Amino acid sequence: MTSRHGLELRAATAADMAGLHLLLSAGGHAMAAPALAARLDALRQGAGAALVALEWGPPSGVLALHWYRTLLSDRPVAQIDLLLVGAEDQRRGIGRLLVEAAAQLARNAGCGAMDIVAADDQASMRAFCHALGFLPTGPRFRRALRKGR
């Protein structure tokens, strides 16, 4: 899929690994390349997707989401787990385009809602979410299922 702003928006592929590794590392999410490849493959095999925004070189942005069923919703819920745009590419609408593309994927998967996590100390992310029509739904909590992780 291509956007109206000259960016290419598409599913992440093995060809994007080196650029994604650099983007994630710069964003504080460093991981070994084999782990990144395995995680992207697992996401693609399951109920989820990873999207990249490309202009002329390595990815300018990445978004990862998955969808799941709950007892409280008639339709699956999509959740954005990661939204990252390179520092030099921020404030250019790339994040908004990635979220719009993710929303279309979620609709195609039959989802009725989409969530994104923005911590209280992430004021700019919370403002971004509000600007895109996300409403706060209360605090979220996470618990490790295995000790030492």
TrEMBL record:
Residues 7-149 form the N-acetyltransferase domain. InterPro entries: Acyl_CoA_acyltransferase, Bact_Acetyltransf, GNAT_dom. CDD domains: NAT_SF. Keywords: Acyltransferase, Transferase. One of its GO terms (molecular function) is acyltransferase activity, transferring groups other than amino-acyl groups. Signal peptide: none annotated. This is GNAT family N-acetyltransferase. It comes from Roseicella frigidaeris.
